[in-house]
Amino acid sequence: MFAAVRIFLYPLALIYGAVVWMRNRLYDSGFYSSIEFSVPVISVGNLSVGGTGKTPHIEYLIRLLQYQFRTATMSRGYKRRTQGFLLADAETNALRIGDEPMQYHMKFPGLTVSVAEERMTGIPKLLQQRPLTEVVLLDDAFQHRSVKPGVNILITDHAKPFYKDRILPAGTLRENRQAYKRADVVIVSKCPDNITTQEADEITRNINPQQHQQVFFTKMFYETPYDLFTGEKLTLTGKNIILVCCIAKPAPLIQYLEAQAKEVHVLSYPDHHYFLKKDIEEVQETHKNWDAGDKIIVTTEKDAARLYLHAEKLKEWGVTIAVLPILVSFLFNRGSAFDQLILNYTERTINENNMMYYGEEE
Question: CA angle, corner 179, sides to 173 and 181, nearest 5?
């Protein structure tokens, strides 16, 4: 059946692939221009349509950079109800800037969080309103060729690396596999704990990194959950869990929770879904009607950003909602090499800009 569907979709994939190929050729030939900014710009993206673990990698970069450099993020703001360039402020919510930018805004109070559909015009507006910004992280910008980042990071899922995938709609790739050559760094994400160096070497050979590219491997792990409203640390061990999530690939999360809990009841919604009143009522009814003790509601940080839109009602309800953070760590003792690559680029670019500026002043 799947083979038949793939055959049916193949002509559509050829048409889509040809359009994307032509667009890339126009950029490669210089017919369309890519702007390179003087401020350090680091792009994080993927070839596939989500589910690679991009957000935890952005957060890794935020933690790495924010205490040394004035850091800003810029996202498209997927499914937000606004348009154009916006900076997050005290009145911001997920409807205004999108769930992932809201997640950054909630977790990193000192971070400048911005959204803009067009990064090429968004970055100048960001620098105009936040002129002390020293480094910009572009979220999900691998296909935004109008901006040329100083470091271009491509993330691919260990379970479905780009070299085993097909272009839309026959597969999940946004563009041809060969587009990986634009990356400076390729990160194979969501690796199992028991991945061997032999398997990693084989994956690296299949990626076939170019001379300018480095390949890294990361795994996901879950940090201690915390209360959505108080921030208090919580435990899930031995609990009866109601998981409320709207993520592309919930299976690993469910598997993790099943290993912690007595039982897990899942309420799953489409990726980036904005919770409606009826959804909140469904969660309440599920909690009320489940004949089990020691119940707790668990959600992801991305979903928490959207649940917070119903904060008043949820606080009124008085039930604990645990938020489960996801972090990444680099495998094979390569974390320091990645850190140095990012820090060296950022510091070098800032120093070059300072030299140019003070040279002109003299």
Answer: 140
